[in-house]
Amino acid sequence: MLHPRSLLLFITVCFLCLATSLQAKEYDYDPDNGEEINEICSGCHGEFGQGGKDGEYPRIAAQPIEFIMNQLRLFRDRKRKNFAMVEYIDERQMPENDMYDIARYLSEIKLKTRMSIVDENAPDFDAYARLLESKMTMQIPKAPGNIERGKKIYNKECDSCHGKEGLGDHKKAVPMLSGQYTNYLWKQVKQLRTLERIHDEDSPKEELLNEFSDEDLTDIFAYLSIVDD
Ligand code: HEC
Ligand code: HEC
């Protein structure tokens, strides 16, 4: 029989362990730090995380916090290749709480899908405001393919994880697909199909996208390119 005092000690230790393990997952959000770190990221991903060069640099704004953190960890641990970024995210330069700050900062940036209608000749036309608005507006050009067919396949095979209309799933760390450059999605398909990237942690050896033809994916991406219009 355990002495009551040992029992109390045991319970206290358990409680402390639990408390620290829970605490390890929660950081105090520091938006100023997020904004400062974004000055590094913006060199490639744009001031508002809108990406650039037709998807050579992906859009990272409004992605789920956990998805962004997961990718930064994968890059840092060399489990996902990214020569461009790796020097910026080595552990020494980016501890976990910095990752949280930048991930949350980016995930809270909302990009519009359509520019407002203004008269550029009006006397109160503000060219700078217009430029800012254009940077915060992300309209993916319509990709070729059969939209109706793509929608059907998407709804049957992808939306359980990637969410309705491809907006991603913040609770499950699944990225948005609509609002992402089509070129970038294709590049990722290649990496996923060859298992350079793991699509689903629960079945890392069976790549779902290998069950779909290029035509299927072309149609899915055609649908995703217009769904948020
Ligand atoms: C020197 C250019 C460069 C800089 C600086 C940079 N990135 Fe990247 N980043 C890239 C490239 C290129 C890719 C795409 C890699 C690929 O094609 O697989 C990428 C991919 C990503 C992805 C994966 C997106 C997805 O949907 O798969 C995330 C998240 C990301 N970057 C976040 C950041 C953050 C946060 C910072 C700042 C700390 C940053 N990047 C700085 C070039 C850069
Ligand atoms: C079981 C859930 C699940 C299903 C079903 C699923 N995905 Fe994914 N997908 C994910 C997760 C999780 C990621 C992020 C992987 C990571 O963290 O690297 C992802 C990433 C991707 C990416 C890379 C995006 C980026 O920004 O890096 C593409 C492209 C993609 N999925 C396409 C599809 C398509 C097309 C379908 C339907 C045919 C599909 N997925 C079905 C969970 C899923």
UniProtKB/TrEMBL annotation:
Q: Does the keyword Iron apply?
A: yes
Which PROSITE patterns does UniProt cross-reference here? Answer: CYTC (PS51007)
Q: Name one Pfam family in it.
A: Cytochrom_C
GO molecular-function annotation terms? electron transfer activity; heme binding; metal ion binding
Question: What Gene3D superfamilies does the annotation carry?
Answer: Cytochrome c-like domain
Q: Which UniProt keywords apply?
A: Electron transport, Heme, Iron, Metal-binding, Signal, Transport
Source species of the chain: Sedimenticola thiotaurini
Signal sequence coordinates: 1-24
What's the protein name? C-type cytochrome
> Is Transmembrane helix one of the keywords?
no
